[in-house]
Amino acid sequence: MSVDDNKLDIGYVPDDPDFGHDERVQKRPAEKKADHKKKSQVKKSTAKLKIQEKVIEKLIIERDEFKDKFLRNMAEIDNFRKRVKKEKEEHQKYALGDFLKELLVITDNLERALRVKEGESTESSIISGVEMIYRQFIEILNKNGVKEIEAMNKPFDPNIHQALSKEEVEHVTGPTILEVYQKGFMYNEKLLRPTLAKIAIPPEPVEQTETPE
Questions:
Q1: Helical segments of the chain, H only
Q2: Is the dihedral of CA 31, 36, 37, 41 positive or negative?
Q3: What are the boundaries of each domain within the chain?
Q4: Antiparallel, parallel or unpaired: β 161-168 and 190-193
Q5: Yes or no: is domain 146-205 CATH 3.30.565.10?
Q6: Using CB atoms within 10 A of its CB, is residue 177 exposed (0-12), middle (13-18) or buried (19+)?
Q7: Rounded Cα–Cα distance for residues 70 and 64 (Å)
Q8: pLDDT tens digit string along 6-60?
Q9: How far apart are the first and last CA of the chain?
Q10: Measuring CA to CA, how many Å separate 51 from each of 29, 39, 64, 165, 170?
């Protein structure tokens, strides 16, 4: 067997010592650097993700707190609305309680007057009793904001007076209340009932006719 044949049998081994080495071995330092960079990026991304998760958790907690406060406030507002409505209904229902209680005093006086037997009182005492009851009733009205409209001899005001009739009267310069048929009243500066009255008006001028010469 020749020398060349032996080379073919055992395989040719080149003189270059680096020949046949794994290329990955040659690239290992660069791969380590790349792997380190990737790991660093992963760590940074993971850290950012954790921070974002914490922020999200905090926002969720704040959202739940605001939602709870909102629902509590809505419940309080609803309860307040119901309470005000109930108080308003009760006020409207019993607003006249004090006024009616004062009217009962007048009712008592009227009953006493009706219980008086004939012969036990004179006409003057009956009149004085009625006048007393009337004054008492007017005081109660005034106390509750009801005031009589002073109308007699006052200038006619269509906002508070109602003319049922009129009469020409000398020496008046404008419509004036001449007679009151029914008294009018104001309730806390608001018209409760107008005064029904007769008004005096200036007489219309008489047209003078020329006499022939």
A1: 3-10, 23-94, 97-115, 123-143
A2: positive
A3: 24-94, 96-144, 146-205
A4: unpaired
A5: no
A6: buried
A7: 10
A8: 444 545 555 555 544 454 445 566 666 777 777 778 888 888 888 888 999 999 9
A9: 187
A10: 33, 18, 20, 92, 100
